Amino acid sequence: MPESLHFNILTFTDAKEKHSFWFTQQEDKNLYRFRKDVVPLEVIEHFGEQEFYYTSFTVENTGFYPVEKSVIPEYEESVTDDGEIVTKRVHNSAFTISMQKKFYNWQIQQYFRAKGCLVKSDYILDSEVWIQKENKLEDSLYNLYDRFTLRVQFQIISKQWELVLIYDGVSKIFKQSLSDIDEDIPTDAYRWLLFEKEFYHYQRMPDKVARNLEKAFPIWNLKIRKALNETAEKPDTSNKYFKFKEKITFLIKDFLKIPQFEDLFRLQSDKLLKVPEYRVGGVRSSMNDMLFGEEKPDYTPLFGITKNGPFDFPKCKNIHFIYFVHEDDKDIGELVHRYFNKKFDNFPGIEQYTGKKYFADKELGCRFKDKENPWPEINEHITNLKTSPDVTYVAIYISPFSRDTATFTQQGIYFKVKQALLNKGIVCQVLDANHAREARSFVYNAINLSIAINAKLNGTPWRLDEDPKDELIVGVGAFHNRVTETKYIASAFSFDNTGKFNRFDHFFENQTKELAGRIKITVKQFTSINPDLKRLVIHFYKTMKQSELAPIEKALHELDLHIPIFIVSVNKTESTDYIAFDEASSLLMPYSGTWISFGENKYLLFNNIRYRNKTFKPSAGYPFPLKIKIDCNDKRLLKDQKTIEGLLEQVYQFSRMYWKSFRQQNLPVTLKYSAMIAEMVPYFEGKTIPDFGKDKLWFL
Fold first, then answer.
1. Distance separating alpha carbons of residues 669 and 282, to the nearest angstrom
2. Long-range contacts, stretch 508-513, CB < 8 angstroms, 24+ apart
3. For the CA atoms of the chain, what is the radius of gyration?
4. Which of 29, 120, 338, 514 is 20 to 30 A distant from 478 in Cα terms?
């Protein structure tokens, strides 16, 4: 059945043909400020020319100057010297798009405040609406709110004004006031406060809030969770498309498609905007294929690797396994040992993944006793380890803590173990004892462990079904660890076009010269083996500025390489502002590989495991699309549709190179690996990674 795709967008017109806006030349923080090139000419003529003017929109004020204008501009036609008819908007025939957009946002915010909702503007001045919901936990510290964003935009998708409806999830506000909270929360953990139905930043609160802290209620955040040592909530694995559509349908039905709202805006329909066919494309089905042992293809990692083995074995000669396990979890350690040692009929042993005989070095193993704080015992054991230079060691750490529910302190132990072993030249594979005990069939855990161990030892579980090309792909990702408040660029994750990993390095934020230097070294190393490099593709975590691109161009120029540099900006989180629903499917999730153009060189890429003519497994999840923007230092190449589609396919393929498990991720590993590094390194002593770890995927 063909897809029937619909954006999370409604189209509308103004309920009135004209408005009167009230202007002043006097600065006032309670008014809306506009530059002189945005306001009507009448305002400049009345007050005289200055840089900014201020308006209360339709609210009358004494001494203000009113200007009435249409909301629909006039147009005039002219003929060029070539005989082409050109239609142009008549200047000053209506309020500008910029002014109307802010006016509509202001109206939306006023409307929802009158409805008793909480309202704030986000960082791009969209309208954020908080609607209280029932909290079924009576003893909870918090009130719960469904949070929505309403974004006004003009003719991005259609030929009309558009309202993008975004469901942002649930936020929590303390039931107790800031003054009454007796938990030991450091003041720098507070970010936003609710005071008399308005939001105020804690560090910038005005006097009226500071003098009435008994009326100010903190909004929960991750730093507060850390301070209270709260356990993390388990990830929601249900269908996100259902929930998103259910929530925005509720918003439309109860708040938008009602007379009070339609007194302001006339919705063209209460149905979501259909995606025009010319905006829709898809990757080739062959992009799902990967190569496994003996170069045999398969589109499913689980079947491919269990039938054919890995594409390439690790090159180490001797592999010994060391177990770190709490005495209460020795049954799990023994379970892993028996699976790896071919004691179960449903698993061929880890030798199928390493190409080497399995051996557990029991003399070097560690059975610790303190479950709440095992770090001192483990650290002492690692410090005193006596290893052989002729052996490659793999540590199996059976963690007594679940990553999903561990406290901040407990999570820190996991990272300390990783770093201490890296300092000894040992990669570590962690297994959650509780998850292992709850597993319906441990064979899948054994497969995931074996895939990751193969990769950590510089093997290749699988690769892309692509002929090697003279191109280099580098992933650059900046990620903010909100728990530790550390910003990193984890970068120079370099690959060839088959997905073969080369090396990575990491930097702090704004170290763009160091980043360029690392890319220069990476390119130099690559071209020493592949001298005919044709292009450099950079998967970047945001839209790259010219100031960030310039040092990279300079570095390539110094290498005498005059090649195109494609910047493929991939949102590091799934797109929740623009999404689309497949209303021809009960799942609502579009087919994997579907892409939608929503602006100049901007795309949504749906990346999941819902394939045409294949059975979908709900356990695989329902990821939202990636938001992608493509740029190039040679703008002419951006007009080549085949090149653009090839770059989208490359992002799609690189999401299939995730070797932590056989479950596919929707973020390409060029950026996914950066996120994993950014999560771990802030916990490392000195916030550095030993050189031993920079050409290994130890963090899987």
1. 20
2. 509/478, 512/547, 512/548, 512/551, 513/551
3. 29
4. 120
Higher-pLDDT residue of 391 and 230 is 391
Token pair belonging to 245: 């559509």
The answer to whether 441 and 619 have CB atoms below 8 angstroms apart is no
Nearest to 402 by CA among 231, 225, 230: 231
Contact between residue 607 and residue 652 where contact means Cβ atoms under 8 Å apart:
yes
Instruction: Work out whether the CA dihedral 168, 170, 171, 177 comes out positive or negative.
Output: positive
Report the distance separating Cα 27 and Cα 52, nearest Å.
8
The CA-atom distances, in angstroms, between 130 and each of 167, 173, 193, 207, 687 are 10, 11, 14, 25, 38
CA distances from 572 to 165, 235, 480 (A): 21, 18, 11
Is the pLDDT higher at 495 or at 666?
Answer: 666
pLDDT of residue 454: 95
pLDDT at 243: 95
pLDDT value at position 553? 73
State how far the Cα of 91 lies from the Cα of 96, in Å rounded to an integer.
Answer: 9
**pLDDT, tens digit, 9 for 90 and up, residues 4-58:** 999 999 999 999 999 999 999 999 988 999 999 999 999 999 999 999 999 999 9
Whole-number average pLDDT of the chain: 88
Here the tokens at position 364 are 């070097």
Strand 319-326 and strand 127-133: the pairing is unpaired
pLDDT in tens, 108-142: 999 999 999 999 876 567 899 999 998 777 668 89
Q: Give the number of other CB atoms < 10 A from CB of residue 214.
A: 11
> Is the distance from CB of 607 to CB of 592 less than 8 angstroms?
yes
In terms of C-beta density within 10 A (0-12 exposed, 13-18 middle, 19 or more buried), how is residue 41 classed? exposed
420 touches 320 (CB < 8 A): no
Gap between the Cα atoms of 79 and 92, Å rounded = 21
In terms of phi and psi (left: phi > 0; alpha: psi -120 to 50; beta: otherwise), the region of 678 is alpha
Question: How many other C-beta atoms are found inside a 10 Å radius of the C-beta of residue 205?
Answer: 18
Which amino acid, one-letter code, is at 44?
I
Q: What is the pLDDT of residues 59-102, one digit of tens each?
A: 999 999 999 999 988 888 877 777 788 888 888 999 999 999 99
CA dist 140 → 135, 137, 173, 279 (Å): 8, 5, 11, 46
d(CA 574, CA 591): 16
DSSP string, 589-658: PPPTTEEEEEETTEEEE--SS--TTS---GGG--PPPEEEEEEESSGGGGG-HHHHHHHHHHHHHHGGG-
Cα distance between residue 109 and residue 14, in whole Å? 16
pLDDT at 159 > cutoff 70: yes
Stretch (H or E) spanning 107:
helix 97-114
Nearest Cα residue to 64 out of 108, 110, 32: 32
User: Could you tell me which residues are beta bridge partners of residue 566?
Assistant: 537, 632
* Separation between Cα atoms, residue 155 and residue 152, nearest integer Å: 10
For residue 342, the model assigns a pLDDT of 93
User: What pLDDT shows up at residue 414?
Assistant: 86
Distant-in-sequence, close-in-space partners of 13: CB < 8 Å, separation ≥ 6: 160, 161, 265, 266, 268
State phi, psi for 225 to the nearest 5 degrees: -60, -45
Which residues have C-beta within 8 Å of that of residue 152, sequence separation ≥ 6?
101, 104, 105, 108, 126, 127, 161, 162, 163
Q: Which pair of structure tokens corresponds to residue 492?
A: 């120079």
Q: What is the pLDDT of residues 623-678, one digit of tens each?
A: 999 999 998 988 999 999 999 999 999 999 988 888 988 887 888 888 888 778 77
pLDDT for res 699: 85
Q: Which of 565, 535, 571 is nearest to 635 (CA)?
A: 565
Residue with tokens 């999370």: 8
